[in-house]
Amino acid sequence: MKILCVSDFVDPLVYNSRVKEVFPDIDLILCAGDLPMDYIDFIVTVFNKPTYFIFGNHNLKEFHHYHKSAKLETHQEFSKYGEITHGHGATYIGFKTERNYNLCYTDPVTNKKTPLLIAGASGSSKYNKGLNQYTDFQMKLRLVKMIPKLLLNKLKYGRYLDIFLTHATPIKIHDKEDPCHIGFPCYNWFIKKFKPTYMVHGHIHLYDLREERIGKYDETTIVNAYAHCIINLPEENKNTTDEK
Length: 244
Fold this sequence. Notes:
The protein is built from 6 helices and 14 strands. By secondary structure, the chain is α/β, with parallel strands linked by helices. The chain has a 6-stranded mixed β-sheet with strand order 4-5-3-2-1-14. Strands 6-7-10-11-13-12 form a 6-stranded mixed β-sheet. Strands 8-9 form a two-stranded parallel sheet. Residues 72-82 have low confidence and may be disordered.
């Protein structure tokens, strides 16, 4: 399964009419936050493949459509909207888990065809009074609510999770020391407990090609999706993850 990961930057390599020539055979797209919704709409339209997204701490004009309790800076409440799961042709996976039966692949451990198991978490660490920011305790409470479905995954498929899609990072992995970009300790706990093959995040901009994009924590490969990155599931070898 070939996966295109994007975040934080409208990449000219992706946002062009010949993108399918540049990125052929894509099976799935993951959008890790801080992207305009019309960019996600373009990706869905051009590739016509399953696309999952979460919100970051910017580009939140449509956040209230997915979280009815949210308020914009105007303090206007959007109570007339309920929580929705799809927008612009993409599936919102923030604070949710999902099994995608249309993206079956052969599990390398059991050798059985199984659905893609994905979970996501929106937002960043709290650094001001902005929207979609959380303390570590607040974020952990949201992760805990996903545990029942993860346990069912383990019982049914022998594993909890394949991909954990977030905007922010775990602490001490790809993060920065400033309050905005520091990682969540609860993500480290979540990874050790539920062992996704990949954690795909955004938030940390890569201005220097020497900066680390791929990391490892416990049994999980941590991928910074800034601009774009290609990964494969299952992981085929140590060089599975690459860039165009």
